[in-house]
Automatic annotation (TrEMBL):
Highest classification ranks of the organism: Eukaryota, Metazoa, Ecdysozoa, Arthropoda, Hexapoda
Protein name: Mitochondrial ribonuclease P catalytic subunit
Record's subcellular location: Mitochondrion
EC code: 3.1.26.5
Keyword DNA-binding appears in the UniProt entry: no
GO cellular component entries: mitochondrial ribonuclease P complex
Transmembrane region(s): none
Length: 536
């Protein structure tokens, strides 16, 4: 009768829930709604909340009759809970409270009744095994032999039942298998999941951590490379697992660390403070020298006084970048797709006639950089002030804009036309392809003015040219910081030295940030914190 009592009590709960309660409800709903995600949030989630609080947070197992009562109650109380999803929902509640024992008790009950858990239920159970495994230290003895066998049995059963597993089942199995000696099967499942979707950063991290912890460095490195190739940022846990493993062997420590640093340099990855701390401890324990440091505006390290390497692009690299961009990316990938061929031809003739420029300005991007809701008078005068900034330095400027800017106040537009080349595209055209075309066509000394990170364009260039593009962008991109009340504009100048991990003379400098973010920083910001590392 326990559950019935709970449901009776639930009726007394006020409909006015606190924000904490709402958060809990959302949490429960998120954790438990495999099939009916949206419908679970309202109504009746107060019942689920009570079930969670009064049962799942208090008990470690329930009797078969209690499980049966709960199961029947959920199905009869909730329109959207049915025989097909009730088990996953109950196991989701066990997962939400980290209750492996309850989950096992429920699966035991199901098996006693001759009920076979479905894919979603197994998925929930595997995730609970995984979080328990990590909570108990994430090593070979974290789960009992029976628990590990249960995971392997689930895997065997599903493989027997389905020839190809869907991506989410693959991921759930990866989370389960990394807790067992059969973790390498997870790598096969990762490949299988690619048939239907892109594996999550979580799945990559679980496998990478396991590979490094087991000393399978090649597998670990392949997974790291693959993570980056998928456009994802590897998580701290993956680096920490590698560091812990290589720290065991002082003789190869330097070589293994430099391999990691070179990886960060190649992909311009910025690590977190946690990983930086881990490296510092390992290095100092091995009598190498690792200090926290900052780099000043001129690029000099506060600790060792060495200057960071200046970003350089050779003429050959520039020629390669420029040719590749102008001849392949812009044409083959149809990036001018929102413009008519006539407009593109017209623009090319215009550039041939008026180039080279010292700076190419993305007019709308600049005008909107202090807010898109400003009146046209403000937008136009801001753009005119940016033109003035370059004009005062004797620079030849191209302003790219849209036809609708012809309606902007005459005085500002007159100033822009008089002091810059101005090309207006149709209102639907994209600005970046025009901007990059004009800038790259102008030559290596030409800069551009925009806040856009041009990520998709960089991506289309492929691995080899992407870094050259990013370096070119770093030293040639200007953007607006603000405009003062008297109309003076403050410009963000490019940083001329490398902002990623690199080695100068015999010293490595490794920038780091406070916490992990799945996407890299928006602009080329100078990292506040660096490690200054010298091997003895
Ligand atoms: Zn230094």
């Amino acid at each position: 009768m326990l559950c019935l009592n709970i449901f009776r009590q639930c009726k007394k709960i006020s409909p006015y829930l606190s924000s904490l309660q709402l958060q809990l409800i959302n949490h429960v709903a998120r954790k438990s709604s495999t099939y009916k995600r949206s419908q679970l949030s309202v109504p009746h989630t107060d019942h689920l909340l009570s079930v969670k609080k009064d049962l799942f947070e208090q008990r470690t197992e329930l009797s078969d009759s209690e499980w049966q009562e709960l199961r029947n109650n959920l199905i009869s109380k909730y329109k959207h809970i049915s025989y097909s999803n009730v088990d996953a929902i109950i196991l989701g509640l066990c997962g939400g409270t980290d209750q492996l024992s309850l989950a096992k008790s429920y699966v035991h009950y199901l098996r006693e009744c001759g009920l076979e858990p479905n894919l979603a239920s197994f998925g929930r159970l595997l995730r609970i095994y995984n979080s328990t495994y990590h909570k108990r230290g994430g090593n070979d003895t974290s789960l009992t032999p029976e628990e590990k066998q249960d995971i392997l049995d689930i895997y065997a059963k599903l493989r027997e039942r389905y020839e190809i597993l869907d991506a989410s089942t693959c991921e759930n199995l990866i989370y389960g298998l990394v807790c067992t000696k059969e973790w390498q099967t997870g790598v096969d499942l990762l490949n299988m999941s690619k048939l239907t979707s892109t594996p999550s950063i979580g799945a990559y991290t679980e496998l990478t951590v396991k590979a490094f912890a087991k000393g399978e460095l090649n597998i670990g490195w392949n997974l790291l490379e693959e993570t980056v190739a998928q456009g994802k940022e590897p998580k701290c846990e993956a680096y920490s697992a590698y560091l812990q493993y290589v720290a065991q062997e002082p003789l190869t420590l330097q070589c293994n660390l430099e391999k990691l640093f070179a990886f960060w340099e190649k992909y311009e990855l910025i690590i977190t403070a946690n990983v930086a701390k881990c490296i510092t401890e390992i290095l100092n324990n091995n009598l190498h020298n690792a200090e926290l440091s900052q780099i000043d505006a001129q690029g000099k390290c506060n600790q060792c006084k060495v200057h960071m390497r200046t970003v350089t692009i050779t003429d050959a690299e520039y020629a390669k970048l420029s040719n590749s961009f102008l001849n392949k990316v812009l044409i083959r990938n149809d990036v001018f797709q929102k413009s008519t061929p006539e407009e593109v031809e017209h623009f090319k003739r215009f550039v041939t006639k008026t180039a080279p420029y010292d700076c190419v300005i993305d007019g709308l991007n600049v005008a909107y950089s202090m807010g898109t809701k400003k009146p046209a008078k403000f937008l136009a005068s801001l753009l005119a002030n940016v033109v003035k900034h370059f004009k005062n330095q004797g620079k030849h400027v191209l302003v790219l804009g849209r036809k609708h800017m012809n309606n902007w106040p005459k005085d500002s537009m007159f100033y822009i036309r008089k002091n810059a080349s101005l090309f207006l595209t149709s209102n639907l055209s994209q600005d970046d392809p025009f901007l990059l075309y004009a800038t790259l066509k102008s030559g290596q000394s030409t800069d551009f003015f925009s806040r856009d990170m041009m990520r998709s364009h960089a991506f289309l260039l492929g691995n080899e040219l992407r870094n050259i593009f990013r370096h070119w962008q770093q030293v040639h991109q200007y953007s607006l910081i603000t405009q003062t009340d008297n109309g003076r504009i403050i410009v963000k100048e490019p940083t001329r030295y490398l902002l990623c991990t690199h080695k100068v003379q015999d010293t490595w400098h490794v920038p780091y940030k406070q916490s992990y973010s799945p996407n890299p920083a928006e602009l080329f910001e100078v990292p506040e914190s660096w490690l200054c590392i010298k091997f003895k």
